[in-house]
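Bench notes, afternoon.
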Amino acid sequence: MLNESKVKLMTRMAMYESKQGEEDFKISSYYKKDYRSFHTIATIIWVTVGYAVAVGIGVIAFLDEMMKNLNMQFLVMLAAAVIIGYLVLVIFYGIVASHFYGTKHEKARKRVKQFNHDLTRLNRMYEREKR
């Protein structure tokens, strides 16, 4: 005999597993701090690569103008602007990435806990049925 509440529970669990369950299980297998730190470091590395490419393109684009103003004061000011811009960008992206991945881990962990709770409920239903 089919139990309607059991079918609804199993359907909800199957939909979760097929849609976002696989990713949530991977995310929640890490500690929150480890997950957040790893992804924040990866974000900082990619921001560094992107910034280096952008600075390289900027140098190539304005090479003529830079050669006209070539003196030590200009080079020091340019280097300071590039370094300060890099630090501001890395700090901003580091904070945003840390918050984003921390929140992502919390939400995934919450969904996995709900799935485990539903699994326990389903197990109890089966045990009651056996009696």
